[in-house]
Design goal:
The protein has 506 residues and is mainly alpha-helical. It contains 19 helices and 8 strands. Helix 3 crosses helix 6 and helix 14 runs parallel beside helix 16. GO terms for molecular function: histidine ammonia-lyase activity.
């Protein structure tokens, strides 16, 4: 059970809640802040004060005054009108993350919602009632309005949720089955539910979790390639990396050396060649730079996961109500674009290692790792597939955050497109996982030529585990199946967030 307070949610906790399906509880102190904030909103309505989104319309309609008798309708119409997301739904774990993140933001006590709304949101998480939320339709400023509106629909008994089979069903029937009562939104509550960056952050958190594991996996796969190509281990000597000064680079070199410990397949300078190509020699530098980006992304995601992103924000018991722009997703938009580039580079360098594994002009292995070169093509077209995925990544890596289209009659004249960046990062991660799967398949085959009995102990364990899923290439077969099987093994699963080496080496 993880307690949410609005101030201390971590990516590790989000892993436990969203992937392990751990339940949550609410901090009593934070709930008291929620009550105090709600009293301030009630006073604003009672005193007929002019406050954006409470007694006025929204966006360009901020100058339209709303009568007290119409406050409930204002919030209802807001949710219905803004629920215009399109496309495929987000994965259930992303939908769950969105609820947790929005709940955590409301618990900070600056949004003015009633405790009953907070409690219902917590119940939805604990009962595993996950809204069906279309992926597309957010500009990433004024909050992730469209996606969060679909989340809010469920809370008022409308919209769709996933059932146990992953099918979209009416939310009202599921709420009734679970004996949960939909709420009637009061002043500001609809706005409080949709003003925020929780869609881009939810996708971003899942991206980070998967990218972190992928970065660790890329190291043992690269080490396996080193054995298949009898690479030179001297390039990983700690002295080389310490004099440059990047701790992430030093750490990658240290982990690479640990993976290769005891190997009789790796070589030293001058034994087989004087130096390796960059895709082998520069693994710590390139992979280390990806880890630098991951560290940056993690920091920004954890800040945003505990941020008040509402508008307006209520301070000092309602004495200070400020209409600002914390819903603007630019910090996460830039972080996601950074992540896109960083993960795309893991695929870029991996594909170059694949080329070295299959090209007979670059190694001493059977041409294209084929059992019968000429008659059988072996891994030739797997390299094509990797090259295709890498090229697609380059297009997806174009930054979303540099784009902006004005909305709401130019009232909202600069937006972040952060949710687009998050979604594209997810596509790049999926593509990169498959590129690494291709490298893994080729490296598994290569070490059979150089000598399985001479492998490093840790890598021999990997070889044995993956050979249970992907057999030796004794003749051509439908390699698409192998690629997807290995990619599935590399994906994040319950209780499996990174390789065992992450725990062994700090």
């Amino acid at each position: 059970m993880i307690e949410l307070s609005g101030d201390s949610l971590t990516i590790d906790q989000l892993k436990r809640i969203c992937i392990e399906q751990e339940q949550i509880t609410i901090s009593k102190t934070s709930m008291e802040k929620v009550r105090e904030s709600r009293l301030a909103v009630d006073n604003i309505v009672a005193n007929k004060e002019i406050v954006y989104g409470i007694t006025t319309g929204f966006g360009k309609f901020s100058d339209v005054m709303i009568e007290a008798k119409d406050v409930e309708d204002l919030q209802l119409y807001l949710i219905r009108s803004h629920a215009c997301g399109v496309g495929n739904p987000f994965e259930e774990k992303v939908s769950r993350a969105m609820m947790v993140l929005r709940l955590n933001a409301l618990l900070k006590g600056f949004s003015g919602v009633r405790p009953v709304l907070v409690e219902l949101l917590a119940d939805l998480v604990n009962e595993r009632i996950h809204p069906v939320i279309p992926e597309q339709g957010s500009l990433g400023a004024s909050g992730d309005l469209a996606p969060l509106a679909h989340l809010a629909l469920v809370m008022i008994g409308e919209g769709k949720v996933f059932n146990e089979k992953g099918e979209a069903v009416d939310a009202a029937s599921v709420l009734s089955k679970k004996q949960l009562q939909p709420i009637v939104l009061q002043a500001k509550e609809g706005l409080a539910l949709i003003n925020g960056t929780q869609a881009m952050v939810a996708v971003g958190v899942m991206n980070y979790i998967e990218a972190e594991k992928l970065a660790y996996d890329s190291e043992w796969i690269a080490a396996l390639t080193m054995e298949g190509l009898q690479g030179i281990i001297d390039a990983f000597h700690p002295a080389v990396h310490e004099v440059r000064g990047y701790p992430q680079q030093v750490a990658v070199a240290k982990r690479m050396t640990a993976w290769l410990e005891g190997s009789q397949l790796i070589t030293h300078q001058g034994e087989k060649r004087v130096q390796d190509a960059y895709s082998l020699r520069c693994i710590p530098q390139v992979h280390g730079a990806t880890w630098q980006a991951l560290d940056y992304v993690k920091e920004k995601l954890e800040i945003e996961a505990n941020a008040a992103t509402d508008n307006p924000l209520i301070f000092d018991g309602g004495k200070l109500v400020i209409s600002g722009g914390n819903f603007h997703g630019q910090p996460i938009a830039i972080a996601m674009d950074f992540l896109k580039i960083a993960i795309a580079e893991l695929a870029n360098i991996s594909e170059r290692r694949v080329e070295r594994l299959v090209n007979p002009q670059l190694n001493d292995l059977p041409a294209f790792l084929s059992a019968q070169p000429g008659l059988q093509s072996g891994a030739m077209i797997m390299q094509y597939a990797a090259a295709s995925l890498v090229s697609e990544n380059k297009t997806l890596a174009h930054p979303a955050s540099v784009d902006s289209i004005p909305s709401s009659a130019n009232q909202e004249d600069h937006v972040s497109m952060g949710t687009i960046g998050s979604r594209h990062a997810r596509l790049i991660i999926n593509n990169t996982r498959r590129v690494l799967a291709i490298e893994c398949i080729c490296a598994l085959q290569a070490v059979e030529s150089t000598g399985i009995d001479k492998m490093a102990g840790k890598l021999k364990e990997k070889w044995e585990a993956y050979r249970k899923v992907v057999p030796t290439i004794s003749e051509d077969r439908i390699f698409s199946t192998d690629i997807e099987e290995v990619a599935s093994l590399l994906n994040v699963k319950k209780g499996d967030y990174a390789t065992d080496l992450q725990l062994d080496i700090t």
